[in-house]
């Protein structure tokens, strides 16, 4: 098997064959999820713990369903309500959970690198469900699966990632993934939301939507992370929508068959026009949610297999 | 530290590094009454000297002890991180004979009473000399100046709010005006506070990829520009604690060229490490200011070689394991450095950036001069504060072998060259 990772902390450590292996397996799970019998046994007997230090409905429920469908025992921990308030450190919390012998630990944390730190201290497989502005690997994988199913490939596509790149872990994971799969990446947004040094990442940077979207195969919109703003990154929501919000007028610059993506949750009328988001001929936003479950099933399945093989090898 | 007059002895067969003369000689030092009595280079003279004890230096380097400007000893407040006893031991092992301590303790050293307390503690427990700095503003809060006169009389050698910037230009300029009249040195941390708020890395493609809040090195230059204007206005004696970016150097050069009484320092970690060392969020590499690009590191090494940047210090900042075992953004800043300053600095010599003499000018002579201390020289009459070291001896650093109570060094498991074989303070051997 080509998948050798013991954790899924980011896209950065994955090799292109590992990404392909994961997406191929996810394709199988898409078929299973659409069938009448939505139950596998790949994770039977394993315990999956979801630790979310930042609230999330979509990602957490997606991981939960993924685990349940593969037969894992799933437990959700609302970390904001618990020990953190009592002054326990992240590492202590991790050690406590670790002592209960979980097999899969799904973690979201508001600080970049926190999931890497945690993975060093526990013996189970850790899946990063988003850490600060660093990475959100399963989001990039589900985006990749969506693109591959719509376009038939991941290489030699032009993908425009638009909006608040600076605060987005989704953007970083997608840049890693699409770069590894040899697609051409454009970052489009106001200069205050493009991170410093982005031009050195091997991507094109545009501050104008028309130029950024020109002949794009994929238009990926990002949520304008209002809760992350110190204030003052953009003059106003309406100016942002006028210049960077995706509507039909701006989408004209992309290829005729370009697909529109959004990781959700959407701010309709801020970064994307509501009717465009709902247009089943252009928008694949709902497919993204569906692929999310399949990709997370595949990721947990592969990590469990690697662990099993290592245990057998001693 | 009390100066106990020791009997005469001779340190012979040494490679004498004299940053004052900027030369290197084979010879011997005659030590008497805790001071250097003579510097001997003629073999006949050395052989003919009558002394109680002769110490063979084995051809190794003998230099003035390091004057480390900006050491944090966590007394009062956090003695579990570092005490005068443990810091003194670490200093002796690192060839540091004078620790110039920072007032960023809990509480801050901002009254003559607290200063007297730490002076007593230092005298009782430290095997090396300690010179104390005091806060420039009360509580280091940047609002009201401290009792600069009383503090000076109680022994404060300089005034600094450490890594806190006095953001209010009026408060800062008044404090500088007052300090200038007293002839006191003010040490500032040039960092534009608004721009650098919340940042824990240097902005660029690496910090952006890692998703860390970052600041442009321009924040340092902006603050230095402001400070230079205030120095020009007030005529104060000013030292920038850490200049870490090439962007700041022209402003520094200009200020010196215009005759302002300005000097600058750099931390050893900014001369030997760069932003990529952060790797996968290694919190032992989290410093203030954050580690810079490789270009900046090289520019700083060059600035030390040319003399534009005057002082190299360890910026010794003890942190316990708990403060570092946190996500990068939450983790405390700073690294210990007393024991690793010399071998880390030797990297610059081995890489050809600096001569031993230029290095010792920055480690010993310049900081001593700037603070009005007698140390830093090998001339007759100078205190016998000395370090004997082998510049080439290799070793692998084990952080748990450090004498500091805190073990937060970025050099754990690093291969280093340069070992301290002996340290003397006032003619008394305190290490080796």
Automatic annotation (TrEMBL), chain A:
UniProt keyword Transcription present: no
Pathway: Pyrimidine metabolism; UMP biosynthesis via de novo pathway; (S)-dihydroorotate from bicarbonate: step 2/3
Class of this enzyme: transferase
Pfam families linked to this entry: OTCace, OTCace_N
EC number: 2.1.3.2
Sites where the protein binds carbamoyl phosphate: 58-59, 108, 136, 139, 264-265
GO-annotated molecular function: amino acid binding; aspartate carbamoyltransferase activity
Gene Ontology annotations of biological process type: 'de novo' pyrimidine nucleobase biosynthetic process; 'de novo' UMP biosynthetic process; amino acid metabolic process
SUPFAM superfamilies assigned: Aspartate/ornithine carbamoyltransferase
Keywords: Pyrimidine biosynthesis, Transferase
Subunit relationships: Heterododecamer (2C3:3R2) of six catalytic PyrB chains organized as two trimers (C3), and six regulatory PyrI chains organized as three dimers (R2).
Protein name: Aspartate carbamoyltransferase
Organism per entry: Palleronia aestuarii
Lineage start: Bacteria, Pseudomonadati, Pseudomonadota, Alphaproteobacteria, Rhodobacterales
Automatic annotation (TrEMBL), chain B:
GO molecular function, a single term: dihydroorotase activity
InterPro entries listed in its UniProt record: Amidohydro_3, DHOase, DHOase/Allantoinase_Hydrolase, DHOase_cat, Metal-dep_hydrolase_composite, Metal_Hydrolase
A Pfam family the protein falls into: DHOase
Record keywords: Pyrimidine biosynthesis, Zinc
GO biological process: purine nucleobase catabolic process; pyrimidine nucleotide biosynthetic process
Cellular component aspect of the GO annotation: cytoplasm
Domain Amidohydrolase stretches: 353-431
SUPFAM superfamilies: Composite domain of metallo-dependent hydrolases, Metallo-dependent hydrolases
Top-rank taxon: Bacteria
Domain Dihydroorotase catalytic: 59-245
Protein name: Dihydroorotase
């Amino acid at each position: 098997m080509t998948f050798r990772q013991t954790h899924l902390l980011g896209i950065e450590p994955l090799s292109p064959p590992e990404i392909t292996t994961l997406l191929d397996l996810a394709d199988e799970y898409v078929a299973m999820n659409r069938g009448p019998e939505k139950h596998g046994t790949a994770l039977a007997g394993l315990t999956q713990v979801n630790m979310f230090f930042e609230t999330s409905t979509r990602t957490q429920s997606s991981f939960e369903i993924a685990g349940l469908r593969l037969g894992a025992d799933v437990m959700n921990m609302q970390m904001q309500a618990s020990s953190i308030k009592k002054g326990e450190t992240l590492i202590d919390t991790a050690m406590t959970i670790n002592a209960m012998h979980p097999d899969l630990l799904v973690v979201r944390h508001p600080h970049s690198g926190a999931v890497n730190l945690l993975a060093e201290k526990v013996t189970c497989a850790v899946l990063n469900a988003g850490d600060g502005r660093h990475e959100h690997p399963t989001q990039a994988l589900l985006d990749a699966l969506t693109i591959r199913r719509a376009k038939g490939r991941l290489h030699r596509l032009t993908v425009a990632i638009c909006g608040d790149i600076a605060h987005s872990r989704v953007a970083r994971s997608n840049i890693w993934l699409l770069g590894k799969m040899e697609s051409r990446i454009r970052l489009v947004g106001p200069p205050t939301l493009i991170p410093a040094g982005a031009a050195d990442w091997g991507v094109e940077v545009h501050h104008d939507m028309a130029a950024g979207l020109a002949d794009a195969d994929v238009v990926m919109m990002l949520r304008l992370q209002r809760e992350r703003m110190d204030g003052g990154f953009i003059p106003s929501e309406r100016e942002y929508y006028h210049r960077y919000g995706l509507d039909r007028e701006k989408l004209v610059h992309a290829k005729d068959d370009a697909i529109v993506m959004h990781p959700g949750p959407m701010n309709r009328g801020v970064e994307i026009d509501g009717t465009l988001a709902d247009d089943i001929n252009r928008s694949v936003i709902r497919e993204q949610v569906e692929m999310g479950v399949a990709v997370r099933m595949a990721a947990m399945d592969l990590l469990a297999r690697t662990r099993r093989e290592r245990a057998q090898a001693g | 530290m009390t100066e106990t007059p020791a009997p005469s002895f001779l340190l012979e067969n040494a490679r004498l590094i004299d940053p004052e003369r900027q030369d290197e000689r084979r010879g011997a030092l005659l030590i008497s009454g805790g001071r250097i009595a003579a510097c001997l280079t003629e073999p006949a003279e050395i052989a003919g000297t009558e002394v109680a004890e002769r110490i063979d230096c084995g051809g190794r380097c003998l230099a003035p002890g390091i004057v480390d400007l900006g050491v944090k000893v966590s007394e009062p407040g956090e003695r579990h991180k570092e005490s005068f006893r443990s810091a003194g031991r670490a200093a002796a092992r690192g060839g540091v004979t004078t620790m110039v301590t920072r007032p960023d303790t809990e509480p801050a050293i901002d009254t003559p009473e607290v200063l007297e307390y730490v002076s007593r503690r230092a005298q009782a427990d430290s095997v090396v000399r300690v010179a104390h700095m005091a806060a420039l503003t009360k509580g280091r809060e940047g609002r009201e100046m401290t009792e600069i006169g009383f503090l000076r009389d109680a022994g404060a050698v300089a005034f600094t709010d450490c890594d806190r910037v006095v953001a209010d230009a009026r408060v800062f300029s008044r404090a500088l005006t007052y300090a200038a009249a007293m002839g006191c040195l003010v040490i500032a941390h040039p960092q534009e506070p608004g721009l650098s708020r919340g940042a824990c890395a240097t902005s660029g493609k690496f910090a952006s990829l890692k998703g860390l809040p970052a600041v442009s090195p321009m924040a340092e230059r902006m603050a230095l520009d402001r400070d230079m204007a205030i120095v020009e206005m007030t005529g104060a004696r000013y030292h920038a604690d850490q200049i870490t970016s090439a962007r700041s150097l022209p402003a520094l050069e200009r200020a010196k060229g215009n005759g302002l009484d300005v000097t600058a320092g750099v931390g050893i970690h900014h001369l030997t490490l760069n932003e990529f060392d952060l790797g996968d969020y290694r919190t032992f590499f989290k410093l203030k200011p954050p580690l810079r690009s490789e270009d900046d590191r090289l520019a700083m090494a060059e600035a030390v070689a040319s003399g534009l940047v005057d002082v190299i210090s360890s910026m010794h900042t003890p942190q316990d394991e708990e403060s570092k075992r946190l996500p990068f953004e939450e983790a405390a800043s700073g690294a210990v450095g007393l024991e690793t300053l010399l071998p880390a600095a030797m990297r610059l010599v081995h890489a050809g950036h600096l001569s031993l003499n230029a290095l010792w000018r920055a480690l010993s002579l310049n900081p001593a001069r700037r603070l009005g201390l007698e140390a830093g020289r090998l001339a007759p009459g100078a205190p016998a504060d000395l370090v004997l070291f082998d510049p080439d001896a290799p070793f692998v650093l084990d952080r748990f072998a450090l004498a500091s109570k805190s073990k937060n060094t970025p050099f754990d498991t690093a291969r280093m060259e340069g070992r301290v074989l002996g340290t003397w303070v006032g003619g008394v051997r305190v290490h080796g």
